[in-house]
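This part of the workshop introduces the protein records we will be handling. The structure tokens are whole numbers drawn from a learned vocabulary of backbone shapes. The record below serves as our worked example for the rest of this section.

===
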Amino acid sequence: MKRGKWWIVSALIFCVLFGLWWLWWEVPTYRKARADVVVRELCAKDGGLKVYETIKLPADRFNQFGEIRVLHERHHKSNDDEFFYTTEDTWITRDKESIVELVIWRGQIKLFRTVDNKLLGEAVYYARRGGDPIGPWHVSSLSCPEKSDIKYLAQRVFVKQ
């Protein structure tokens, strides 16, 4: 009789511990998976590169990797630099200020010509950070589409003569 009670208590303790583990692990994982679906849907709608004007430059303007250096608007000097870019982040979901909390945002990079402030191209991406179970590891992240930063935007806007 004592053996039967011990087995029931052990099974009950196991079920409680398993339930707590499941809540700790699966609830955040489900939220993160849902957020990843949202990010991928937004990327499919308007993520990626858009080039409005292609600029032909002499080959000596490009470095050994075939890239041209474009400065952010904070660092560019209007008289010296021909081109600059801006960045803007729009928070779609933002829980708390903690790094482990789930956040989704839209990033937009715009490339301009300094002389006339003409928009030459833009890159739009979406990203998710956090939403993981609390633990000693780094938070996970997801962003899309690939190759949607200033480096790849400049490669599409600027071509060698």
About this structure: The chain has one domain: 2-160.
